[in-house]
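We were asked to recover a plausible sequence for a given structure. The inputs and outputs are reproduced exactly as logged, with field labels preserved.

PROBLEM: sequence recovery
POSITIONS: 320
GIVEN STRUCTURE:
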């Protein structure tokens, strides 16, 4: 991939409506609608926090879900800035003429903070879910939700900083994208390809394997049925358990697919045609949208906390 900065054909480029713009607008509308639903989750969670504590709903799970989804939504916003909007060719002439380093480095810095933080916060959400199922002490769980997010954001900052300090560039995207479709890339990858690949794969591998292990532990405990006692639980208790279980599965599937794709790309580097590799950013965006928005919609429309029920949630429901 070559830089477009200073190339006359890109400087004089004129935007025309294309299929990429339409696809990006549809994705943007979808993201806005789902983000509004997530905002409603936050509002209702704050309004019902005291009531939920009295009814036995675990605020640590709700808080970790909100943290996880907040970073996922911010990651989607950064993906629009780094990948999706540049692909539309709307800003091709501007980037070719100016190459705004401060803007591009800031966008990439924000993107990689959210990329790493969102993965670790997803692991935290699944880990807390399993910890509650296995009756880990409340004091440990409460400390975890207070301390671990801070550590996660520090890790996200430190791992993203090299992308800010190394600079950024705009390059032409390969086929099937149009002439003028751009990608904002970090020069850190260009100067340290092996280290950067190991860093990315380490995060993806750790997150995917951790979520897979937590999912196995979760299903193992559910099948045992010793702590959950579904038959004695209220209908709402069962719904809460089902919501949290399916939410973890929704998070797991895109993670595993992304992990598989990343492994294939890494192991097949140099042997995979550039035309096929160019689909990877778009496929990653689709998986990110699925992981974030499907989880939000499912959580909102199935969790009893967001429904106006006449009865109160059973106080013995400790696993929600």
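RECOVERED SEQUENCE:
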């Amino acid at each position: 991939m070559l830089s477009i900065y200073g190339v006359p054909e890109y400087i004089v480029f004129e935007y025309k409506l294309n299929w990429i713009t339409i696809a990006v607008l549809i994705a943007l509308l979808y993201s806005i609608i789902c983000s509004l639903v997530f905002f409603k989750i936050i509002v209702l969670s704050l309004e019902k926090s005291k009531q939920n504590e009295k009814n036995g709903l675990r605020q640590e799970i709700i808080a970790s879900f909100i943290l996880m989804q907040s970073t996922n939504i911010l990651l989607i916003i950064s993906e629009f800035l780094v990948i999706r909007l540049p692909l539309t060719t709307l800003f091709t002439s501007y980037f070719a003429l100016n190459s705004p380093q401060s803007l591009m480095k800031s966008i990439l810095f924000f993107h990689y903070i959210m990329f790493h933080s969102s993965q670790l916060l997803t692991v935290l959400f699944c880990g807390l879910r399993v910890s509650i199922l296995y009756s880990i002490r409340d004091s440990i769980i409460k400390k975890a939700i207070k301390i671990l997010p801070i550590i996660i954001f520090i890790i996200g900052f430190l791992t993203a900083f090299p992308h800010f300090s190394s600079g950024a560039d705009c390059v032409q995207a390969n086929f099937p994208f149009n002439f003028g479709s751009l990608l904002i890339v970090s020069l850190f990858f260009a100067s340290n390809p092996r280290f950067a690949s190991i860093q990315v794969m380490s995060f993806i591998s750790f997150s995917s394997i951790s979520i897979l292990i937590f999912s196995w532990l979760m299903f193992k405990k559910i099948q045992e049925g010793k702590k959950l006692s579904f038959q004695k639980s209220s209908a709402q208790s069962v719904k809460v358990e089902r919501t949290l279980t399916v939410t973890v599965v929704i998070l797991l599937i895109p993670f595993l697919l992304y992990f598989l794709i990343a492994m294939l790309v890494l192991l097949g580097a140099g042997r995979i045609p550039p035309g096929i590799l160019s689909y990877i950013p778009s496929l990653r965006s689709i998986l990110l949208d699925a992981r974030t928005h499907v989880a939000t919609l499912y959580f909102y429309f199935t969790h009893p906390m967001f429904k106006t029920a006449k009865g109160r949630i059973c106080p013995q429901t400790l696993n929600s």
